[in-house]
Amino acid sequence: xxxxxxxxxxxxxxxxxxxxxxxxxxxxxxxxxxxxxxxxxxxxxxxxxxxxxxxxxxxxxxxxxxxxxxxxxxxxxxxxxxxxxxxxxxxxxxxxxxxxxxxxxxxxxxxxxxxxxxxxxxxxxxxxxxxxxxxxxxxxxxxxxxxxxxxxxxxxxxxxxxxxxxxxxxxxxxxxxxxxxxxxxxxxxxxxxxxxxxxxxxxxxxxxxxxxxxxxxxxxxxxxxxxxxxxxxxxxxxxxxxxxxxxxxxxxxxxxxxxxxxxxxxxxxxxxxxxxxxxxxxxxxxxxxxxxxxxxxxxxxxxxxxxxxxxxxxxxxxxxxxxxxxxxxxxxxxxxxxxxxxxxxxxxxxxxxxxxxxxxxxxxxxxxxxxxxxxxxxxxxxxxxxxxxxxxxxxxxxxxxxxxxxxxxxxxxxxxxxxxxxxxxxxxxxxxxxxxxxxxxxxxxxxxxxxxxxxxxxxxxxxxxxxxxxxxxxxxxxxxxxxxxxxxxxxxxxxxxxxxxxxxxxxxxxxxxxxxxxxxxxxxxxxxxxxxxxxxxxxxxxxxxxxxxxxxxxxxxxxxxxxxxxxxxxxxxxxxxxxxxxxxxxxxxxxxxxxxxxxxxxxxxxx
Length: 607
Hints:
Glycosyltransferase, Beta-galactosidase, Chain A, domain 5, globular, 15-stranded antiparallel beta sheet, 2 domains, 13 helices, single chain, 607 residues
């Protein structure tokens, strides 16, 4: 068993994906996490969560070496350059993209090795472990140099011009002597087990891998060309946009929160969750971020996904879904896996799907309002759905909920949740008035105004002049930084300025922001929440506090790795990433903060 301290840092990993699934590639050239054929499928390489049982696919030099890596410009094609005493070689990793791949994905990982100078000896080790490490597959040679790994409900076809032979334990091994200008290929495709007998790849498929390389670069470049933003200070905004795009599940429009499960918020603790699902909140935030960069197609996909998944019925709305819209995602502990650095339990599924989180009504309405600002009038059927969202918000806004942070302690009257119910009602009124849609507007206005009065009375500490975490509480919560973004209060309202300052003072750790300090029903502590730190930077920027905003923004940017990827959380004392990785919420908060700072630079305060 690998000692917990020997697991690579999360910062050592890079992301590749194809808008259907994803993989994490280590600095040592090892794919240590991959679920196929979807984000929420069982893992086929899962060493990230159990070093001995999880499986991996590694290509790296024998002996001592150093590694430098980068993404090819405006793409998700990863290039790792290995240097050893004998020379230098380059490893290119990507999921093969294709035009029209939304419904016909290749489900193919491509690994290309190129010699740069001298001679480098590389070892190849492919250790598939299906069903989260439970199944050692049957591996057999097929025609034309293809190997098949089959077990459980998955099959993998492994092919290329690299000579592979069976290892000691349901695996494949090979060795490469790579010289300058030499080039080798390995492809791995997901194949349903029932189709493995008819799978024929061979030499033609190998020859096509270079074409897939060119096509994949072109696909990402064409998508990136739509971004109306030029990178400036800090981590690349384009990189964050690419990560967010990679988390989109193309067939349905769903957007996963992260491609991983159970990466801990505290090493060795129980705060380990499966994020390979579509949260309405994260998806809608992501749509806002991408829309502000000129990327509109994703907004249409999410809007349709939400309506389909809720069956057009507001009463059936829930906070998260599987990527195909399935509602039931029961939370299960995988007791046989030790977890990253011994962080148990490893979980699949997420019990938050059964929670009541009142902000979901406002989120759906916020998406619809922003869509209308681009000239899209809701049709009659969609308006019925939205009107029902307003009624649901009115009917349930006085109930306690689990809040944006999905606490596992007793429900509370979270202020941010109440505000989002207000957003649902206010947005419904605005849409009805803009398009003369049928609605009981007078009643809705009365409910909206009464809810605002309640929030400003019970969710506000008059002594300190700040908004608070929940009714009657004296604590603050980083989610309060979102109140101006939905027009409940102006960014520069004195109440909001004071709230911002108290959050910065009371929730700061090494200049980064925690979500909250209150008990949440779980043991242990967690790291700082990087998205919240970007929220603070955005808030300060909108308050025209440029110097402070950049100080916070730069500090948050330093939580990313060398490739510009962010995890959910960060442990400042050890400079260690924590939580699921890469985390969509962090990347979209990064985009929003950067845009706010760009605006303040373009339109500086007259003072």
